[in-house]
């Protein structure tokens, strides 16, 4: 009997310990006392560390969007509020509840102390998560909101952490704490010295703090030295970052200008509709995404050949209908193709709408590569740089190494003799113009990943593209490459000083002045072809 | 032999010019008369709106004339002539802006509304003096002339020609457009300058002022035409045409080609600027879109459609295309860009000499 009693008692105890559910435990938060809430939170943290529901609860509580229903005392989170109607979700079942009025709910209020408790709890949950991205962002979070109390947590995490990037962040946090709070002077000096190799704003702040308020001269000096190193490194990486932006802008210019380098540089046709051919490429991307909504990840890749074909065909059409009659009269091609550009713009307005359309970016193109805390390389820009180079070398290969390229150059240099050699010049003309236009289309695919797609897209790039070709030297593909990248770089380095618009103005003025010095661009064409 | 008055002498062999100018003169007179002296309910009454529109067309005609001088006769296709037009317009708009005084929305007697809005405390230095109409009118001509001088000097000296020149003129106007779109340039940003109240003491909302502006614009157009014709009739004109047709030969003979080019370019810029100054009070606004490459290229098409290298062809082209533009943009707004685009293509492919060319061809056929 006694034995049975003990078992029963134990069972009772067990239910007391484990039987209480998350629902029951969390409902204890529905109290007015902040102290009690803190106790409950600590309890919850011990029991439900790995429960996703607890994390949600903390997140919403931190935002002040955790409520409970007055009627049946259930915890809900507020998703949206329109005037006095609340759209909520049940915390436990994650079911969306129907719209209710404000007075049906009561908020679970928090104060500053609770806020830091919640933050710490979130940090702890994430720092020991099995997902390494979560751990990384938690470590980052800790570093930027570093407090003396975090030391225990950091040490614990450091013992088990294996991933280098996370470990590095934890280590930086730890050294920061030592530098700030250690009682051993030697240790502190050592820590300050080490801090010089990090670059986070937290470290910067720590060092500044020590430099300004420490009583120890040696500590002050070391902090100053470390700060100097960091500043030096930061400005170095800042320059690299700017270089990268310049490169990416340059590659956009390059993409926009390569097609023009062929139609203008090789064929001597001033194609003012070039910008609209770019626009057609961008709209092709948009159309493909609309047609295949399930393949957003691949639509950009599908769009590349599609845009080449669509823009290329439009180009061939333009060449056959209009430009064919105007060879040797560049100013006339300028006017006629400008007319075509207006027609194409209006066509796009009629078919799609005058409004800008948004092209989605596939996930593999969003985000950034983080080299260190002051150098981020965004993927879309990185890919566009690579893509522009691929396109450039592809065109270069076609023009220099294939028989098509040979024929194109032959026709452009001397039509009559080329014909006498048996080259069908009109066929080559149409094909060349088609290729130039197709490349414009490809540029449009790339641009659709950077800006919105609209009827005025082409206008924005046409002047720039011509500038690149003229600056580089007409008929010289390498000149186009160098001109595009140097204009991109110059632009990005003037921009922080003068502002985006003024930078553009300065560059245009620069090119106008440059053409005074070298009317034929950076790399002028030589020989008898040059004087026309 | 009785000597004819000089102004008729200029038009002696210019039948087209005589026809166009006298037709316009009659139209302007009729419009002005019918607007002012016919009762509003009469079928002969012509609305003030029409007066304004006609005035705008005539300002455009003067602009086209200026472009024809450099493109048709000098062979320099400027894709940035809208810049001179806009600068002249802005200079005169600054004067008009100063005349508003304390009648603006903010009622500030010292500063135009947009400056109050931008929290400026005092007038920027480049606005000084613009309350004086004579100074303002001098600036209308001087600023574009200076720009034309600097730009032309650099471009012609280094022998930038043909397509390259066209592209950098386009870049020039594009750069100016970007600059004028900036709010802190002190020219009203993208809203431009507007809300003008009166001009030289005359109320701009009165019909008589409108008609007066129309007549002044017509007179300016006639004077502009005579200047251009006078230049082209002179020996200078023949040198200029030679430069267009064979620049290097003219240079080898010993002419300083750059100076001739520069002179014509500046004259043209000043004419364009005056056109701008006439345009602003009639339309009631000027904003940076006038600097847009689109506008500058559009005016090239006026000249091309009318017939380049004839002067009066430019006037016909400007009026015909602007009229079509007004008609289409109100009646069939979607069609307008198709029509304008088609006009560019058709006129370059099939009308190398424009409307004037078509008439001349018909005449030759008749005589033959």
From TrEMBL, chain A:
Pfam name, any one: BPD_transp_2
Protein name: Urea ABC transporter UrtABCDE, permease protein
Presence of the UniProt keyword Signal in the record: yes
Entries under InterPro entries matching the protein: ABC_transp_permease (IPR001851), ABC_UrtB_bac (IPR017779), BCAA_transport_permease (IPR052157)
GO cellular component terms listed in the entry, alphabetical order: plasma membrane
Highest taxon of source: Bacteria
Organism of origin: Malaciobacter molluscorum LMG 25693
Annotated transmembrane regions: 243-266, 298-318, 382-399, 427-448, 460-485, 497-515
GO biological process: amino acid transport
Matching NCBIfam families: urea_trans_UrtB
Protein's membrane topology: Multi-pass membrane protein
Record's keyword annotation contains Ion transport: no
Similarity comment text for this entry: Belongs to the binding-protein-dependent transport system permease family. LivHM subfamily.
Signal peptide (UniProt feature, chain positions): 1-23
Location relative to the cell: Cell membrane
GO molecular function: transmembrane transporter activity
Keyword terms, alphabetized: Amino-acid transport, Cell membrane, Membrane, Signal, Transmembrane, Transmembrane helix, Transport
From TrEMBL, chain B:
Subcellular location: Cell membrane
A cellular component annotation (GO) from this entry: plasma membrane
One Pfam family named in its UniProt record: BPD_transp_2
Major localization listed first in the record, in broad terms: membrane
Membrane topology: Multi-pass membrane protein
CDD domains in the record: TM_PBP1_LivM_like
Keywords: Cell membrane, Membrane, Transmembrane, Transmembrane helix
Transmembrane segments: 20-38, 44-66, 73-93, 134-156, 163-181, 211-232, 260-279, 311-329, 335-359
Protein name: Urea ABC transporter UrtABCDE, permease protein
């Amino acid at each position: 009997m006694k034995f049975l009693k003990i078992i029963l008692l134990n069972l009772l105890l067990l239910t007391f310990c484990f039987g209480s559910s998350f629902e029951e435990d969390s409902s204890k938060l529905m109290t007015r006392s902040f102290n009690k809430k803190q106790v409950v939170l600590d309890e919850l943290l011990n029991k439900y560390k790995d429960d996703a529901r607890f994390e949600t609860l903390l997140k919403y509580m931190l935002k002040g969007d955790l409520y409970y229903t007055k009627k049946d005392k259930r915890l809900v989170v507020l998703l949206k509020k329109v005037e006095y109607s609340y759209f909520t979700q049940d915390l436990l079942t994650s079911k969306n509840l129907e719209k209710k009025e404000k007075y049906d709910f009561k908020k679970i209020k928090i104060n500053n102390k609770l806020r830091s408790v919640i933050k710490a709890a979130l940090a702890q949950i994430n720092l020991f998560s099995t997902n390494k991205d979560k751990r990384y962002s938690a470590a980052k979070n800790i570093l930027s909101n570093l407090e003396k109390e975090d030391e225990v947590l950091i040490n614990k995490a450091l013992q088990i952490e294996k991933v280098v990037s996370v470990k590095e962040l934890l280590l930086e946090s730890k050294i920061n704490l030592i530098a700030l709070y250690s009682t051993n002077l030697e240790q502190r000096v050592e820590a300050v010295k080490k801090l010089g190799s990090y670059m986070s704003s937290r470290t910067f702040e720590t060092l500044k703090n020590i430099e300004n308020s420490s009583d120890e001269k040696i500590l002050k000096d070391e902090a100053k030295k470390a700060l100097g190193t960091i500043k030096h490194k930061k400005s170095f990486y800042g320059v690299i970052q700017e270089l990268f932006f310049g490169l990416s802008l340059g590659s956009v210019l390059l993409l926009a200008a390569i097609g023009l380098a062929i139609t203008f540089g090789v064929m001597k046709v001033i194609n003012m509709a070039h910008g609209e051919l770019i626009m057609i490429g961008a709209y092709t991307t948009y159309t493909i995404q609309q047609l295949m909504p399930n393949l957003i990840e691949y639509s950009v890749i599908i769009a590349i050949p599609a845009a080449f074909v669509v823009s290329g065909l439009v180009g061939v059409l333009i060449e056959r209908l209009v430009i064919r009659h105007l060879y040797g009269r560049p100013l006339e091609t300028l006017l006629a193709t400008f007319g075509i550009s207006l027609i194409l713009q209006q066509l796009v307005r009629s078919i799609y709408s005058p409004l800008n359309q948004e092209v989605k970016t596939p996930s593999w193109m969003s985000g950034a590569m983080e080299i260190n805390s002051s150098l981020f390389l965004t993927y879309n820009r990185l890919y566009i740089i690579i893509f522009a180079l691929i396109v450039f070398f592809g065109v270069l290969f076609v023009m220099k190494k294939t028989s098509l390229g040979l024929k194109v150059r032959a026709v452009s240099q001397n039509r009559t003799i080329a014909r006498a050699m048996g080259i069908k010049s009109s066929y080559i003309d149409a094909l060349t113009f088609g290729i130039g236009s197709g490349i414009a289309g490809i540029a449009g695919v790339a641009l659709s990943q950077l800006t919105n797609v609209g009827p005025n897209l082409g206008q924005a790039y046409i002047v720039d593209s011509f500038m690149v070709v003229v600056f580089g030297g007409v008929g010289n593909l390498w000149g186009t490459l160098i001109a595009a990248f140097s204009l991109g770089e110059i632009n990005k380095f003037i921009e922080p000083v003068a502002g985006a618009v003024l930078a553009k103005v300065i560059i245009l003025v620069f090119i106008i002045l440059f053409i005074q010095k070298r009317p034929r661009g950076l790399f002028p064409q030589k020989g008898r072809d040059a004087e026309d | 032999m009785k000597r004819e008055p000089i102004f008729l002498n200029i038009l002696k062999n210019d039948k087209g010019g005589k026809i166009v100018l006298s037709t316009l003169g009659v139209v302007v007179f009729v419009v002005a008369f019918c607007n002012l002296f016919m009762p509003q309910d009469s079928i002969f009454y012509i609305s003030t709106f029409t007066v304004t529109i006609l005035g705008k067309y005539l300002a455009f005609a003067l602009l086209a004339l200026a472009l024809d001088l450099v493109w048709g006769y000098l062979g320099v296709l400027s894709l940035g002539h809208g810049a001179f037009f806009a600068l002249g317009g802005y200079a005169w708009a600054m004067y008009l802006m100063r005349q508003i005084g304390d009648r603006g929305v903010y009622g500030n007697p010292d500063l135009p509304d947009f400056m109050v809005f931008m929290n400026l405390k005092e007038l920027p230095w480049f606005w000084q003096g613009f309350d004086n109409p004579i100074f303002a009118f001098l600036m209308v001509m001087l600023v574009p002339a200076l720009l034309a001088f600097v730009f032309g000097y650099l471009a012609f000296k280094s022998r930038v020609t043909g397509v390259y020149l066209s592209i950098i003129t386009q870049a020039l106007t594009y750069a100016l457009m970007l600059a004028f779109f900036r709010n802190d340039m002190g020219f009203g940003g993208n809203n431009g300058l507007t809300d003008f109240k009166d001009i030289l003491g005359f109320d701009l909302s009165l019909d008589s002022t409108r008609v007066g502006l129309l007549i002044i614009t017509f007179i300016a157009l006639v004077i502009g035409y005579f200047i251009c014709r006078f230049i082209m009739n002179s020996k200078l004109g023949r040198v200029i045409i030679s430069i267009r047709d064979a620049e290097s030969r003219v240079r080898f003979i010993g002419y300083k080609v750059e100076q001739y080019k520069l002179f014509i370019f500046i004259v043209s810029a000043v004419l364009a600027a005056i056109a701008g100054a006439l345009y602003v009070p009639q339309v009631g606004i000027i904003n940076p879109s006038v600097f847009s490459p689109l506008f500058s290229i559009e005016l090239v098409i006026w000249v091309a459609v009318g017939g380049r290298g004839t002067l009066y062809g430019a006037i016909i082209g400007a009026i015909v295309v602007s009229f079509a533009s007004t008609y289409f943009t109100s009646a069939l707004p979607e069609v307008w860009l198709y029509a304008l685009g088609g006009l560019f293509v058709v006129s370059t492919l099939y009308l190398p000499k424009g409307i004037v060319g078509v008439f001349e061809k018909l005449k030759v056929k008749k005589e033959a």
